[in-house]
Amino acid sequence: MKHIIPLITLLTLASCGSGETASDASGNFETTEVIVFAQASGQLLELHADEGATLAAGDRAGLIDTTDGYLQKQILLAQRASIAAQAPVLAAQLEVQRQQLRNIETDAARLQNLYRDNAATQKQLDDVAGAVAIAKRQMAVTASQRDALDSQLATVDSQIAQIDHNITKCRITNPLAGTVLVKYAEAGELVAPGKPLYKIGDLSRMILTVYVSEKQLSAIGIGRPAEALFDAPAGDSLRRRSGIVSWISDKAEFTPKIIQTRDERVNLVYAVKIAVPNPDGALKIGMPGEALFH
Known about the structure:
This protein has three domains: 4-31 and 203-293, Beta Barrel (Elongation Factor Tu (Ef-tu), domain 3); 36-59 and 174-200, no CATH class; 68-170. It has five helices and 15 strands. The longest helix has 49 residues, at 122-170. Helices cover 39% and strands 29% of the residues. By secondary structure, it is α+β, with helices and mostly antiparallel strands. The strands form three sheets. Strands 1-10-14-12-11-15 form a six-stranded antiparallel beta barrel. It has a four-stranded antiparallel sheet with strand order 2-9-7-4, with no helix packed on it. It has a four-stranded antiparallel sheet with strand order 6-5-3-8. The chain has helices spanning 4-17, 67-84, 86-116, 122-170, 214-217; strands at 25-30, 33-37, 42-47, 54-55, 60-64, 171-173, 178-183, 190-191, 196-201, 205-212, 225-231, 238-248, 253-254, 268-277, 288-293.
């Protein structure tokens, strides 16, 4: 570190001597990066994520073989059709039993009237009452069979929904609009859940992370404007780009070795992130930059 400080100090003095505005802090540019993982097992049939390619959020980036899921779904659909075919039979059976019960109840009412007129015996009343009870039990059994059928259909439907969900996982959907930074897999490979496929980053909006001292912190606020300074393509001048302070650490940390604050190096600093638009792609990941707070 004894060799780093004098070098940065000389560069800062040279910059000030050339008429450029001294920066308040320095750091490096980064961006939002997302690693896309496989969520299903099988052969990777296609992967449209070449390094440098631009993908929009929601784009289909690849496909994992769905043959096993498709065949399992066909089996379940056949089972469902077989179960569902029993529903009309049970419904018709229940309607017949309901009509039989109405007929028996009508006979029971007639026998009750005859019994009051001493034209029917107690045994006849008991027999018809037993027939009513049997008919009701038969209807209850049929109704329970229908409920069991509905339960079986619900179970199969849940299994089909699970298969559909697994098939959806085989379709690799790009989650973030940006540029493919690294490609980890190729079409034809066997993949499993958790295997990284590619890394994508949003290069249209870069983040400059700098570290400031406690004295500088009071003049910085989230949402306030700031300027990012970075090297021009040719020459020693610095380019400027307006940004917004998007995050300020709520905890102090030890000064990174490569960071030089506006004042002397201090033991504790606060990390600050500045969101900077990058419409022309001039800002790159890892590029050094400087910050100027208003």
